[in-house]
Amino acid sequence: MIKKFFAPFIAILECITKYFKAFVFLLIVAVLIFSTREPKQHPNLARIHLKGAIVDSAMLRTQIEDLRNYPSLQGVLLVIDSPGGAVGASVEMADLIKELASTMPVVVHTEGIMASGSYYAGVYASKIYANRGALIGSIGVLFNGANLQELFKKIGYEPQIIAAGEYKEIDAYYRDWTQKERAYIQNLIQEEYQTFITDVAKARNLELKDSSKFAEGRVFNAAKAKELGLIDDVISRNQAIDKLKELAQVEEALWLEKSSWQGYLDSLVESTLSRMLGSMLGVGLQ
Questions:
Q1: Please, which domain of life does this record's source organism belong to (predicted)?
Q2: What is the rounded CA–CA span in Å between residue 262 and residue 268?
Q3: Does residue 273 sit in helix, strand or coil?
Q4: Catalytic positions, please?
Q5: Fold entry, domain 41-144+207-285
């Protein structure tokens, strides 16, 4: 009975372990082969994207590192449409964008959602814009856990665990947290939250003492986000591009273009990772 219950999950994990790394390797090889056939470009502007659940910073890092091959670049448009994700990855992305913005203007635009971890990721951009239908904010931190104790009782499954360290079983799925564990988690999450709001306040020139107005996990429409100082203006994508051209001192935009094949592979890897791992996040900015 127990084996039948867990069989689908085990099969999925085995498939990922067995084939996913090979799949990604083949995609990388294909990208390298096809990208070498592209004509030499001399762009002055580039687009990079942050879409879907944030699992790690690898996709954004790859896009930014690719920009180094084009010394003619003078500015970057970062398009964000993401509900957030893992804490560490969001912080790493924020640092990557901060470093990039120190070398050239980086303008963020969102027409969907720029919330929690994805807001963190883009907070150090030179300017942040959104269209009037976008949702911004959700500045907060959560810790996901599950207590499957009652389910295990019903199916007759009783785990046997030996652990060393008072808090080692904090992520245990077979029992509820103790009061000490709950207090420890709350303190940990509060520390992460404090780091989050401090970085936002510093990057956006906001008063930390006003964090109850712009944070606390609330989501705002674009107009309210502008009023609170979370974004610079409510404008369209084309208008954001015009702002980027002004900052980059570019009269005619010459965009860095990916081949259709490379763009397709990037989208495929990104969507696959988001769907497979997005729901498995533990501590997250969501």
A1: Bacteria
A2: 10
A3: helix
A4: 116, 168
A5: 2-enoyl-CoA Hydratase; Chain A, domain 1 (3.90.226)
